[in-house]
Each structure stands twice: as structure tokens, then as C-alpha cells.
């Protein structure tokens, strides 16, 4: 059994089949790409896997220490606790909280204290505050954000906000990290740095990373294998070089948008 097994998964919005009979297997410790033209269903697939949407049909099963768990219909927070974390195509941070607090809130989710305890700084919050703060700064350092801890998240430039989102996702100690266009809006330097970071965290944290990205050089550079969606259906799966030569993929991109 794979770490995550996606079987015949579909999502319809009215008459539109946004995701249609998709089958994907994710193993431990790999870096997988998910590509496809605009509107192909990539974000919808992430939303199905992380509990934002309930599938119209099909199954998502995860292998955990306690055996196989069906994720269909589970709340996003439950799915997060089981080990799936994600970033959003449209950045979702607490804009008015500091960089540090944004990470602390995510760490607290993992370590049992609630959101308000961390924002309002109740006594239970102070008990392990220092420990969590050290961990938060450790994570921020990986993404070179450690000097910005006191800055409000909304004041960070776009590229740094995207990196902060990844830190928040990592803080929940995922087994699988889903990144939805992490390089969107970044300049080539930032993209190159991010490419290295994604490679590094996948190895160092011993996790599986699934990457949606329109920047083909990033995808081809870091992914071991790639799935391609078009109009909700999987049209190809293979190594970067197989995907680059696949006639259906070339047609989807040339004929696509
Ligand atoms: N909540 C929704 N209600 C209705 N239609 C939706 C909803 N979410 C997505 N769709 C539609 O489903 C299809 C797939 O959208 P999705 O956002 O998953 O594509 P995508 O591959 O992530 O595209 P992009 O590369 O532009 O981000 C699109 O036609 C979109 O308009
Ligand atoms: Mg999308």
C-alpha cells in the first residue's frame, strides 16, 4: 500500500467535471510534480485531498501507523493532523500577525494549544512559549526569514510571504506537503532559491512533496516524476524527460490556453 492512494477520484461542480477519475499513488519520501494548463483541476485536486472539498466519488486512502485511513469527508484539521499540509495558490496568512506569530499559531495547532491561547497569550501559552518560539525561529531560519520575526506578515514582499506559508505548513509536521504554485510571482533569483529549498526540505524533513507549478524549469528540475492533468483527467505520468516528450502533453500545452 502506498502512503497516499487516490482512486478514481472525481469532483463535479454542477455540470463541470473539474476532477475526473483520477488515480495517483504517492510513496514516502518523493518529490512529485502536478502540472497542466489553467483550469485543468490541479488546485481542485489539492482541495479534495486536504478536505476543502468533499469528493463527488472515488477514494483517498492514507497509510498511517494505525493502518489505512479513508480521508473522504474528513475535516481539513483532521486531515492536517493525519499528516497532510498545504500552501494556497492565493496566499493565506494572518496578515496582521507578526511573522513569528504566524508560525506559532501553526505550531500550536500541532502541539494542542489553541489559536486564541497563542494570540491572547494566556498562561497555557506561556508554558511552552519559549520552546515553540525556538522551533519557530529554527524553521524560519531555513527560509531566511529569521530577521523578520517582528514584521507583520502583510508587510512582507510577495516572495517572502510565499516562503512563510511553506514554513507554516512545515510547522504542522506533515508527512506530505502540497505546494500550490509556490514560485508564482517570484523573480528568477527567488525561484532558483526556492527550487533549492524545496529539494532541501524534502530530504531533510524526510517527507513527500507534491508540487503544482507553471514554472517548467522548476518542475523539471526538482521532480522525480510528474502527473499531468487536462480538463480534470490525468493524461500522462512519468519522469521529467518522458513528460517533455509525451505528445499528449505537448498538445495540451500548445493547444491549451
Ligand atoms: N468552487 C468551484 N465552483 C465551481 N467551479 C469551480 C470551483 N473551483 C474550481 N472550479 C472550476 O474547476 C476547474 C478547475 O479549476 P482549478 O482551480 O482546479 O484549476 P487549476 O488547474 O488549479 O488552474 P490554474 O492553473 O489556473 O490554477 C475550472 O474550470 C474552475 O473554474
Ligand atoms: Mg490552481
TrEMBL record:
Pfam families: ABC_tran (PF00005), BCA_ABC_TP_C (PF12399)
Residue span(s) of domain ABC transporter: 4-256
Listed GO biological process terms: D-alanine transmembrane transport; L-alanine transport; L-isoleucine import across plasma membrane; L-valine import across plasma membrane
Gene Ontology cellular-component terms listed: plasma membrane
Gene Ontology molecular function: any one: ATP hydrolysis activity
InterPro entries on file: AAA+_ATPase, ABC_AA/LPS_Transport, ABC_transporter-like_ATP-bd, BCA_ABC_TP_C, P-loop_NTPase
Gene3D superfamilies xrefs: P-loop containing nucleotide triphosphate hydrolases (3.40.50.300)
Protein name: ABC transporter ATP-binding protein
Organism: Aerococcus agrisoli
